[in-house]
Amino acid sequence: MTPATLAATLLLATAGADALTSERAVALALERNPELAALAAEARAAEARLEGARAPLPSNPELSAALGPRRSGGERTTDVELGLSQRLEIFGERSARIDVAAGERDAASARLAARRVELAASAREAHARALAAERLAALAREELAVAREAARAAERRAELGSASRLEVNAARGEVGRAARAVGTTASRLAAAQAALRTLLAAEPGEGLPLAGELPRPSDVRPADGEALVRAAAERRGDVAAARRSLAAAEAEQRLARREALPSPVLGARYAREERADVLLGTLSFELPLFDRNQAGRGAASARAARAGVELAAATRRAGEEVQLALARLRAATEAASAFDDGAVSGAEENLALSTRAYEAGKIGLADLLLMRRSAVEARRDHVEALEELAAAEAALARAAGSERLVTRDGR
After folding, report:
1. Can you give 69-115 as a three-state secondary structure string?
2. How many angstroms separate the CA atoms of 32 and 7, rounded?
3. What CATH number is attached to the domain comprising 303?
4. What is the pTM for the complete model shown?
5. Is there a domain that residue 29 lies in?
6. 3-state DSSP call for residue 287?
7. Cβ distance 263 to 59 under 8 Å?
8. Is residue 40 part of a domain?
9. How do residues 29-49 score in pLDDT, each as one tens digit?
10. Does 172 reside within a domain?
């Protein structure tokens, strides 16, 4: 078990059996996700590059030395030469290099923020799907118990001569269908819990004590679509990363143009020749006859053009995703609201009444099965509608670029 996995496991264990709410799942995912740690390391590396770009000079001074004998006639002397030189930047290369590094640092930070938003939405959705799968598994077990009771009632009626063998066989077939539903929902629950464990960096196979409830339509506040579109264009991590990448690319263009100009190298040289001391100042620079940084300027220009296209695409995509998420949320709210008018309770009441009526011989098995399936489907559809409502809320928060649900606190 890795240290991160052990820590996540201990957090789950110490949180209590009733503590893994949706928000707790988000907190654990943001704290333990390894991809976030990798992106944070990338941001720190970009910060280190920025510190390097802020150095006052682009390179270290260069020290040179020379020593050798000199013969002049019959006299022999030793010549000594020392030199110190420093390359300078006088055309704004340093400021351009700082702008490049700052843009890359900000883009890395924005990518980290974008991944946090994505992970928070995924954790909320995974928690809701696990919670819904748990509810559906419980419903399936209840339905199996009801089907078995109906089968026993059919057998009792058959013994009294009030039901045919056909009804008994049909009731037993309904038990088989209900048993199959139990297995299906158990598999769905296992898959949902595995997805949630992955996001939380929990140990494989470890049980997750889920807590909380699926959202109700009354919990969802109306969202201002235009405000969310504007907010997404401003605060979404992918848009911010594209914007900062464009700034870095434009700064790189400036740097590439300025690097085409020769950088002077200033220095001083001391020499001792034939017992005479010589002190000279030196100035040297390259002649830009062949290499004028054509490749660097071309690559920087292409990168800037690409960054501009990516920024426009990211901004447009943010608006489209917000509109799509709003439409999904409206549809999910309407679907979940359809069950608030007593649809589920009415179906359950009909099931109880029809069961008693069947046992009293007032209705046949076909009517009982019809009522039962109607109640089963209503309860299942209700849970799935609430699950979709939770997923739609998470999708809207993701599209708006918020780690929090924008339909709850307006952020």
Report:
1. EEEECCEEEEEEEEEEEEECCCCCHHHHHHHHHHHHHHHHHHHHHHH
2. 8
3. 1.20.1600.10
4. 0.78
5. no
6. coil
7. no
8. yes
9. 999 888 888 999 999 999 999
10. no
